[in-house]
What we know:
The structure holds two protein chains of two kinds. By secondary structure, chain A is of the alpha/beta class. Chain A has a single domain, classed as Rossmann fold, CATH 3.40.50. Helix content of chain A is 36%, strand content 18%. In chain A, the strands form two sheets. In chain A, strands 2-1-3-4-8-7 form a six-stranded parallel β-sheet, with helices on both faces. A two-stranded antiparallel sheet of chain A has the order 5-6. In chain A, helix 1 (11-19) packs parallel to helix 7 (144-153). Chain B has eight helices and six strands, in the order H-E-H-E-H-E-H-H-E-H-E-H-E-H. Chain B has a six-stranded parallel β-sheet with strand order 2-1-3-4-6-5, with helices on both faces. Chain B: Keywords: Decarboxylase, Lyase, Pyruvate. Chain B: It holds the Pfam family TPP_enzyme_N.
Amino acid sequence: MSMSVRSQLDRRAAVAALLNSRKDTLVVSGLGSPTYDLHSVGDHDGNFYLWGAMGGAALIALGLAQAQPGKRVLALTGDGEQLMGLGGIATIGVARPHNLDIVVIDNQHFGETGMQASHTGRGVDLTAIATACGFAVTGTVRTIEEVQRLAAKITEPAEGPRLFVIKVLAENPPRSLPSRDAVFIKNRFRAHLGFAAA
Amino acid sequence: MHSPQPNPDSHSSDDWPSELFRVLKAADVRQMSYVPDAGHSQLIRMFSADRDVTTNVLTTEEEGIAIAAGAWLGGQRSVLLMQSSGVGNCINMLSLSAIGRFPLLMLVTMRGEWAEFNPWQVPMSRATQPSLEAIGLRVMRAETAEDLVETVESAASLAYEADQQIAVLIGQRLIGKKKW
């Protein structure tokens, strides 16, 4: 798994393979491409899409996982978004939820702002950070076959939080835009879990 | 430096942390997150000992804004404890609470405004209320124990029943001079 090995994985194909058997997994997506990727697989009442709050995706997922211990929760985010929330990896490691996975779609760039290189292409390893913070399982995948195996794994019980990096090509596929109305998405999400709007 | 001992001179009516705990439990708060402050130490201990409440210690305060939103998505009420220096860390993450109209209750112990010995606390102290209001929060303030308990009770209703984003500022005069 040398850093010099460039992934040839298409991010949309990877996210589709990751989520086409999601069952009742609840998903929070980080701003930018992961939000478009999640929507491109098909809109879902159990999705909460971020258009801001950079660094917050995995922590929203933590609060959700703690409130819904019987459901699996997935934070689907990007390398830039997770880098802004590095401290949150320590917080999640200490909280040790058994039903939370973080999947970082890692193109090693800030894709939304002009494809500037990020830290993950320059030696920073989010899986090593998560391991050091006490995550139960971490891993890096680079092929569609590995993503398919990961898709099955994230629907299964775990001993603690897990973080997986999917290395993908640095490219911006056509945007697939979910609603930007956070109140609507929030209320739809809560209704999906049986909670009435105020 | 962060003395966990309650003030031995205080009498029972000054036991506002226990009263706040009672009020927040009555409001069905199920998650609590915090960056420690000496003024919150008793409340932190009480929540941490409560098996019906999930407690998260944070590396930086904005994490708690995100956790509170996630808790609400999952049907639970969350409260966030911090000191005024942490408010500055929260500002962009508060976009989430503001634009999503997520219930938010944060209890902020003030530094830098009353018998403060540390000048580094003063700038953020001055910026606390204006910056919270600029991002769209409603700020409530209490200077006495009685007023604080009533204020938090009211703030909890506004947050959890009326989907408001509330910061309750706890005056440094109420917490008392930091002991060295």
